[in-house]
Model the fold of this input.
Amino acid sequence: MSSSEIRAQKKQPPSPISSLPEEIFVDIVARVSRSYYPTLSQVSRRFRSLVASPELYARRSVLGRTEQCIYVAISKDQTSDIHWFTLCIKPNGGGGTSDHRLVHIPSLPPMPLQGSYVAVGSSIFVMGGFQDWSITSSVSLIDCRSHTAQPLADMPKAVAGSVAQVIDGKIYVIGGANGHSPMKSRSRTMMEFDIETEVWKLKSRLDWEQGKVWFSSVAMGGKIYMRTCYNSFVCDPVTSPDHFVKDEVLHSKEWLGSCVVEDVLYYFDVRGKCLRAYDPKLRSWGVVNGLEGLLPRGCSWSKAASYGGGKMVLFMQTEEIWCAEIAVERRQGGEIWGTVEWCEVVLGGNFRIMDCVPVAVLL
Done:
């Protein structure tokens, strides 16, 4: 390349975006879906500064929008710290179609392994877990609007791998490991966090046998549904916090990585290669119809998260991480049918999804 060509390149006019007045620039980006923000933050320093600025979210709040987002806690090898990703749509540049990808959120620091995660409003509470293989009682609050984290008051006890759900403005953290082994659940306590007052309370000693490891939990109809290897339990933490009822029908399936859509529990049965549904009112299991041959084969585990409007996202591990968006509906006669909106590889490499958290971000 000649020196004249180099000089010509250096004299190229700046991008029209960079010359926009700040107010117009903020207004344009405020109207873009937040799923693009991790990608935009990599474009330039100006974009990176804007997507973390309070001015942008103040403008979005004026527009009066709430956006459903999926946040994913990922460990590289199930022993390293947690890094947070979000499910994003990225332009394909091809024919107006789009790719779906898990994009790392670099502004969030590594967090403890085997912590408990719950979404409240536009935030995620991260509680306990293993930090440098020591159990911690720390609590962090992730602001999903600015992708920043701040510490909150510690829990009364240090635990890892607990059940955590939100009922009536309170977070309940149940059981978990309080020793060095993540495969043993020794804690028989329930801790309650009042979201409004930010005060922790130790509630009670629980009436189950020690040594049980929690594999899955969901909240439905004001109750918490939990599963160990040996039993499934139902608890009403408000009216009967120290009483756990065994549910043998619920436990007849190995429900793991489950989610709730319109008061029905769903999970993907990797052995049976089907999406199963449990209706707590009917106390019965069923199989979601219409998905045969539409999901990847040979997945070793799965995680599901509700996605609003009668939908869920289902993450599946093969040699890569797949994700499918599935709409579910109950048809005449009571059968539940599913429609796959899309199904793609969203992350390659040796990673493991530890949990996925749906967050309704108030904008």
Observations:
- Residues 54-63 form the longest helix (10 residues).
- Residues 70 and 195 are 22 Å apart (CA to CA).
- The first strand starts at residue 66 and ends at 75.
- Helices lie at 3-10, 22-30, 37-40, 45-51, 54-63.
